[in-house]
Write a structure and sequence with these properties.
single chain; 288 residues; alpha/beta; Alpha-Beta Plaits; Rossmann fold; 4-stranded antiparallel sheet; 9 helices; 32% strand; elongated
Length: 288
């Protein structure tokens, strides 16, 4: 069946309330999209990330009375667009947008419905979904490329803010002997556990909520792909997890935030040159 799509241009401050109005008016789905057509990738667990200029998009049954909808929502106060959409196999269209992705020299992230490009490569099977982290965001890509560049053979690795488990699983597939995933959200812990089982590495991964981290836990390599603010606030905890001469990788940082994060960590780490990708960056270094 065909559908009616209503797109309202607004700000991040108003987006949530408009979303609620669309749902109350009968929208079968409501999504957020950056006005400049950038999709919203990989929010933190429990968080909805919105751009400053946000489109709220509602999908309605084709039989919806447009004039009545305009009156209910008082659309004249917004900049909006209403259009007819053809019926599509939405699941198939969604799946077609995801392809195997290569990071570094050896590592591939592959959705389950695609053919593996190189059976001899290091392949992580991961399907997009409610899990937090699929490799599509520059920060995840930066971390995956960094892990691929390291010799993780027989190393202990900690993934702080593990989300989907993508970095933890990649580390195991790249040779790590043991990986510990840590997150604040039970859903992330479950997603990591499920993905580890799917990749047949569940026996080598330990998963903890942040409040349950064992005492004296340390690793040869620690990677934390969260956000600049939490990285600075958690500096004492994250630094403590890195063994002397161990490796640290931080991301989830906008390029203009990199100096403040470097300032927080440089007292305990010899930092490398900051690497940037699409306005995001990665900070790495070795513990003193």
């Amino acid at each position: 069946m065909p559908w009616i799509q209503l797109r309202i241009n607004t700000t991040s401050d108003l987006a949530e309330s408009i979303s609620e109005q669309l749902e109350e008016s009968g929208a079968v789905s409501v999504t957020f999209q950056d006005t400049f057509d950038n999709p919203v990738f990989e929010p933190l667990p429990g968080e909805t990330k919105l751009w400053g200029n946000t489109d709220v998009v509602g999908l309605y049954d084709a039989e919806t009375d447009i004039d009545e909808l305009k009156a209910i929502l008082n659309l004249e106060q917004y900049s909006y667009k209403i259009e007819q959409l053809e019926d599509k196999d939405w699941e198939r269209e969604w799946m077609d947008n995801f392809h195997p992705m290569q990071f570094g020299k050896r590592l591939w992230i592959c959705p389950s419905w695609r053919e593996i490009p190189d059976p001899n490569a290091v392949n992580v099977m991961l399907d997009p979904g409610l899990a937090f982290g699929t490799g599509t965001h520059p920060t995840t890509a930066l971390c995956l490329t960094w892990l691929d560049s390291l010799d993780l053979t027989n190393k202990i690795v900690i993934d702080y803010g593990c989300g989907s488990g993508i970095l933890a699983i990649a580390a195991l597939k790249l040779g790590a002997a043991r990986v510990i995933g840590i997150d604040i959200d039970p859903q992330a812990i479950q997603a990591s556990r499920d993905n580890a089982e799917r990749n047949k590495v569940s026996r080598k991964i330990e998963l903890y909520l942040a409040k349950d981290i064992p005492d004296n836990l340390q690793a040869d390599v620690v990677v934390a792909n969260i956000l600049a603010g939490p990285l600075k606030e958690l500096k004492p905890q994250i630094s403590k997890l890195v063994k002397p001469s161990g490796e640290l990788g931080l991301s989830g940082i906008l390029a203009n935030q990199s100096q403040s994060v470097c300032d927080a960590y440089q007292t305990e780490f010899v930092l490398d040159q900051v690497i940037e990708q699409d306005e995001w960056c990665r900070i790495t270094g070795k513990k003193l």
